[in-house]
């Protein structure tokens, strides 16, 4: 086995149990999401599940890498560095798509500061850019000759992600306030606020995680955040687990149901029979 040294290498003895525990937790949440997606036919959640799979594979590779201490090999190091770094971008893509669907089912598209038809395109495109930048930078960390450049590229990717997340939060809050104030009686019957709450929680967690990662790389390999493993589990792994659990609990399946029922309407604008809401017969 060939030993590898790179700037992003652990500055501590990594914990095998911690990596295994998080791989298992992400696995359980991912299985639950796969079932929810299949049951509710919310196929736009595929990127989210892919993010969960990336987390599982990333922490599994981290466990393998941890077991190799101190003679790490490039394979597990590269896999854990890349997949754990880019997984949140896949979560963010689904968060962005969910807001677009909430706008459709509430009929509140006119209350968005960004035209709804462009909203998903803009944010998902930005997310793809973040994904590619961070993946490229993380891949460069595993070689001494390119590690410094890799760190710079990752910081650029994180800055782009932070900017898009901040813009998304502004867009989401603005839409929420304007719809609450000006929405129709029907839109107020649609249970959109709980799903907005889920978006706020999850996007804020990804936002905090991105800021943490930027500070981590800005401080460098001698900084306190890269000197202690527990920081990454607190401000990355744990936060991303919560993101998955929030959507397990507040799953946008009913948004998908409403969207399908709207498409079935005679004029393409109906959502559900008003009598269904009046009787409280809502799943």
From TrEMBL:
It comes from the Eukaryota. It is found in: Membrane. The keyword ATP-binding does not apply. Keywords: Membrane, Transmembrane, Transmembrane helix. InterPro entries: RTA1. It is a multi-pass membrane protein. The chain crosses the membrane at residues 12-32, 44-65, 77-97, 118-141, 153-177, 197-215, 230-251. GO terms for cellular component: membrane. This is Uncharacterized protein. The lineage of its organism: Eukaryota, Fungi, Dikarya, Ascomycota, Pezizomycotina.
């Amino acid at each position: 086995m060939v030993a590898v040294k790179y700037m992003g290498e652990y500055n501590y003895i990594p914990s095998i149990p911690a990596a295994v525990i998080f791989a298992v937790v992400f696995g359980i949440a991912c299985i639950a999401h796969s079932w929810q997606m299949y049951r509710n036919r919310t196929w736009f959640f595929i990127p989210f599940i892919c993010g969960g799979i990336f987390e599982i594979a990333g922490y599994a590779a981290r466990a393998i890498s941890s077991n190799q201490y101190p003679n790490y090999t490039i394979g597990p190091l590269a896999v854990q560095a890349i997949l754990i770094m880019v997984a949140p971008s896949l979560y963010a893509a689904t968060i962005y798509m969910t807001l677009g669907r909430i706008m459709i089912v509430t009929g509140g598209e006119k209350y968005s500061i960004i035209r709804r038809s462009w909203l998903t395109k803009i944010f998902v495109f930005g997310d793809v850019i973040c994904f590619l930048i961070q993946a490229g930078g993380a891949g460069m960390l595993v070689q001494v000759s390119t590690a410094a450049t890799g760190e710079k590229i990752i910081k650029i990717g994180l800055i782009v992600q932070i900017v898009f997340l901040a813009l998304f939060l502004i867009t989401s809050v603005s839409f929420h306030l304007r719809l609450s104030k000006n929405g129709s009686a029907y839109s107020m019957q649609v249970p959109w606020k709980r799903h907005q709450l889920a978006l706020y929680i999850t996007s804020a967690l990804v936002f905090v995680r991105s800021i943490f990662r930027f500070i981590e790389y800005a401080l460098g390999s001698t900084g306190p955040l890269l000197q202690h493993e527990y920081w990454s589990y607190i401000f990355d792994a744990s936060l991303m687990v919560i993101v998955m659990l929030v959507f397990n609990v507040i799953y946008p399946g009913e948004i998908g149901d409403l969207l399908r029922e709207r498409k079935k309407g005679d004029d393409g604008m109906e959502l559900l029979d008003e009598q269904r809401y009046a009787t409280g017969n809502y799943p």
